[in-house]
Amino acid sequence: MERHAFILANTRVAVPLLCPEIRLRLITPACPLWSATEQDLAQLSLADPYWGFCWAGGQALARHVLDHAAGVAGRRVFVFGAGCGIDAVAAAKAGAQRVLACDIDPMAATATQINALLNSVSLVTTTADMIGSPLTGFDVVLAGDMFFDPSLAAQVFSWFGRLARDGLEILLGDPGRGNLGGQPLVKLFCCMAPADVDMDGSRLQETTVYAWQRDGRKL
Amino acid sequence: MLEDLLKKGGLAVNIAVLLKQTPDTESVIRIAGDGKSIVTDDLKWIINPYDEFAVEVALRLKEKHGGSVVIVSWGPQRVVESIRTALAMGADSGVLIDDEALEGSDSLGVAKALAAAVQELNPDIVLCGSRAVDYDEGQRGAMVAELLGWPHLALGVAVDSDGSKVQIDRPIEGGKVAAEADLPAVATLGGSHAVWNPRYASLPGIMKAKKKPLANKKLADLGVDPSECGAGAAKIRVTALEMPPERAAGRIINGDLDTAGKARELVRALHEEAKVI
Question: At a CB cut-off of 8 Å and minimum separation 6, what does B129 contact?
């Protein structure tokens, strides 16, 4: 099925717990896909739909961006691992001059476009693998909940180190997944965010938003 | 937070499940050229069903008392898929002992690695299947318990814990035994799919599992001397594998006879040919 139609058919409009001013199309308990098993997913040949859920790290980061709009207003924002697009939407709502939402999954790019429209903001998406790119022409990098895999985290952190040296401001959100040790991060904001893909928000987990320190102080 | 409070109240239990990846029970098994191993190309791999019961028991204990469930397994990277399945069912984290030195280990070699991993994780309860559907040796749980110096409750078909003890029911001929042991302890699970009815992971669980921590360990990380594991250290050697004999074709009683004739012919065949009556 065509991506756009698939997403519309398999998601519902939901309001993320921490960001009631944003609406997102997500896979909720009301969607048949919610109860799909591994076999069902294999039959659908659907790549892991990270875009169908609003992860704790991304949600906390979006809250921070909305509460500190001056941090992105008028600036050029790159969103790494956009997923459902919550951080890209938050940056656009906060007045970013332009937002590029990057996710290598084409479904995520489509979901981000759908969710941008749903929130009446405009942004650009790309499915290019941007890890290692100098991100010329950007001022701010947002990365929500992208540090769950130690080897991917290590790769991204060496890239972020270079970007920080080039003067980019980097913000990330993480619900204590344990892969941030040794990185030059400073805590900006701590909150209880809905536990992983727990749509009714009945279970919360401590989630932190960090800024990358340019002077290299380690966490 | 609630989990910590329960823990302080002596209720929460931290559980390690020892999980083996085995060929799917639906797979067509072929014996390799050496006559004592199987061809593993194109096999579908699953969680050993008895270990899946252990995952289910661990999750029920966690739901009831709080605590955490860690999955411990061993083997090549394909085993990650089975650990992720257990994480998708609701386990919290995983450890995979992926070390070439483990290849060709007998049960004792594997148990040494598992016991070292358990020691590092320091759980209250270790659960695993009483046997695995591949080689059916039934030694893993008992050996790990012995290496740890912990009690071993075997073949449980009901398991509970109050945070200081673990209780099991074990079926015996014509009845059951209720047994308990102080924690820490190892319990191995018997029963069947019908007894435990392990849960299926659905999409939110599957996606959650993608972001749960899964650590890869070498024997050296666990303080295990590789020379104690692997084919070289194996004290048990499989000498031969044999497929079950092909079943003889069934026999159909002549359909042209009337009912009484069919019954006569059936009785005669059972008496004279099959010699069962």
Answer: B20, B48, B49, B50, B51, B52, B53, B54, B140, B141, B188, B189
Instruction: State the smallest CA–CA distance between residue B174 and chain A in angstroms.
Output: 39
Give the model's pLDDT for residue A174: 96
Domains of chain B: 2-233 (3.40.50.620), 250-277 (no CATH)
Cα–Cα distance measured from residue A104 to residue A80, given in angstroms and rounded to the nearest whole number = 10
CA–CA gap between residue B262 and residue B9 (Å, rounded) = 71
Of A66, A71, A58, residue with least CA distance to A197 = A58
Number of CB pairs, chain A paired with chain B, less than 8 A apart? 48
How many whole angstroms separate alpha carbon A58 and alpha carbon A13? 17
Which one, of A90, A63, A92, A76, lies nearest residue A188 by Cα?
A63
Domains and CATH numbers, chain A: 3-212 (3.40.50.150)
- B177 min Cα distance to partner chain A (Å): 37
Cβ-Cβ contacts under 8 Å, B212 against chain A: 148
B131-190 residue pLDDT tens: 999 999 999 999 999 999 999 999 999 999 998 999 999 999 999 999 999 999 999 999
Find, among A49, A148, A36, A59, the residue nearest to A105 by Cα: A49
Question: Is B211 within 8 Å of A145 when comparing Cβ atoms?
Answer: yes
Assigned token pair, B224: 């295990």
A81 dihedral zone (left: phi>0; alpha: psi -120 to 50; beta): left
Distance from the first to the final alpha carbon of chain A: 45
Compute the distance between CA of residue B83 and CA of residue B60 in angstroms, rounded to an integer.
Answer: 18
Complex ipTM over 0.90: no
B12: which 2 tokens?
């929460």
B207 to A53: CB separation less than 8 angstroms, yes or no? yes
Cα–Cα distance, B175 to B89 (Å, whole number): 32
Task: State the pTM of this model.
Answer: 0.86
Strands A124-126 and A169-174: unpaired
Cβ <8 Å between B207 and A49:
yes
